[in-house]
Amino acid sequence: MVQRYIISIALGGLVTFGLLWLMRSVIANPDAATDSGVKGRVIEFVRVQEDQEVMVKKRKPEPPPPPDEPPPNMPKPTFDSNVTMGVDIGAVQVDVDIDMSGTGGFSADGEYLPIVKVQPIYPRRAQTRGIEGHVLLEFTVTSTGAVRDPVVIEAKPPGIFDRAAINAALKFKYKPKVVNGEPIEVAGVRNLIKFELQDS
């Protein structure tokens, strides 16, 4: 076992000595490693580009083309108001005997009455194609006189005027129905909105 260590140390010393001697010989004569091939000079040159005159073009934006035709005038759709069971609002008998001696609010019984009816916006697609029609809506008049949950019962043609009619109905304002001095909700209120183009 000891002999192995002695032999390993001896061999390591010989290898180390050989490497050191080889490095010394390379350092002592550097030309021997680089002296190979053809000797010559390296010429460096830089290509100089000639100055070129820069041409600047002034571009003016082209004016937009004129429109083919002006947009048509927005027609005013007409609408009729119908209540549940086909009763016309104008034919409803309303008790207008209001007691003003109370402290305010709703002191007399009575049916609901329309106060504000917003005209719907005529759909652009239907207007340009000359389409006319109507939408029958059913909704609830709340105790505050607002419109809630409008639903399309009938539409002709279907799907053209539905959204415009619903958006308009949501802006309607009513005098709510009063029973025993308290405003109540009224469900099943129907309103027919007609969309007709006016002759220009």
What tags apply to this protein structure?
200 residues; two-stranded antiparallel ribbon; four-stranded antiparallel β-sheet; alpha+beta; 4 helices
Q: What is the multimeric organization of the chains shown? A: single chain
**pLDDT under 50 segments (min length 5)?**
81-107
**What is the helix fraction of residues, given as a range?**
10-25%
Approximate strand percentage: 15-25%
- Tell me the overall shape: elongated
Q: For the terminal residues, how far apart are their CA atoms?
A: 121 Å
Topology as a string of helices (H) and strands (E): HHEEHEEHEEEE
Could you give the order of strands across the largest sheet?
A: 1-8-3-4
What Rg, in angstroms, do the CA atoms define? 49 Å
Number of helices, where a helix is a run of at least 4 consecutive DSSP H or I residues: 4
Number of strands: 8
Task: Give a summary of the structure in a few sentences.
The chain contains 4 helices and 8 strands; from the N terminus they run H-H-E-E-H-E-E-H-E-E-E-E.
Describe this structure in words.
By secondary structure, the protein is α+β, with helices and mostly antiparallel strands. It is built from four helices and eight strands, in the order ααββαββαββββ. The longest helix is centred in the N-terminal third of the chain and has 27 residues, at 2-28. The protein starts with a helix and ends in a 5-residue tail after the last strand. Mean pLDDT is 75; it is low at 81-107.
